[in-house]
Design a protein that fits this description.
This protein has one domain (about 25-175): Nucleotidyltransferase, domain 5. Helix 1 (about 65-75) packs across helix 2 and helix 3 (about 125-135) packs across helix 4 (about 140-165). A hairpin with a 3-residue loop joins strand 1 and strand 2. The N and C termini lie far apart (about 35 Å). Helices cover about 35% and strands about 20% of the residues. The protein is an alpha/beta fold.
Length: about 190
């Protein structure tokens, strides 16, 4: 950028604003922690740097009202991408919880396309979320209401940080049809 005298604006890096540099994508991202009882939701700022909690949705496997609410949140935030946590086992294998997260991600992708949905490894995020809440003084009973949001923040922040480090989107892209690939992309 130039000022009125023809110099450069010192507040803008020589290689351009952050959202114009190759490898960095801007836009609000939504993070999702799918549980059997609740769904935690987080979002990033528009520059996709910092994740923050949004809300916890009651899981509704029969009626799908949680998906309805999530679709409305994604639209309301004008999100450019949704990151869904994939709860792999410590061995890296996928169990029942991972299957449920994959199914949820596919249903979500069908409803919000062309917004991309990606699955990212989320091993131990709920454990880390409980630890952070406990360390910050939130009592055990109070954690239930916000632990899913805290886990969604950790999932999303991890994805944002990994993208900055690698220069590319992370995780598996979920197709809007069928089931996502089970093979994880190289890290």
């Amino acid at each position: 950028m130039s000022d009125a005298v023809g110099g450069t604006d010192a507040s803008v890096p020589a290689d351009g604003p952050a959202d114009e540099r190759p490898g960095l994508r801007s836009g609000v991202r939504v993070g999702v922690d799918v549980g059997s009882v609740r769904v935690g939701v987080a979002a990033s700022d528009p520059s996709a740097v910092l994740a923050h909690p949004v809300r916890t949705l009651a899981r509704d496997r029969e009626g799908g009202s949680d998906l309805d609410e999530l679709v409305a949140l994604v639209a309301g935030l004008e999100a450019v991408e949704v990151v869904v946590g994939l709860p792999r086992l410590m061995s890296g294998a996928e169990g029942e919880a991972a299957r449920l997260a994959r199914d949820y991600a596919v249903h979500l992708a069908r409803r919000i396309r062309p917004v991309e949905v990606r699955l990212v490894d989320e091993r131990l995020t709920t454990v880390a979320a409980h630890r952070r809440l406990r360390d910050s003084g939130v009592p055990g009973r109070g954690q239930r209401a916000v632990v899913d949001q805290a886990a969604a923040v950790l999932i999303l922040q991890s994805a944002l940080d990994a993208e900055v480090f690698s220069g590319r989107a992370v995780g598996e892209l979920v197709p809007a049809r069928g089931r996502p690939r089970k093979k994880e992309r190289h890290r």
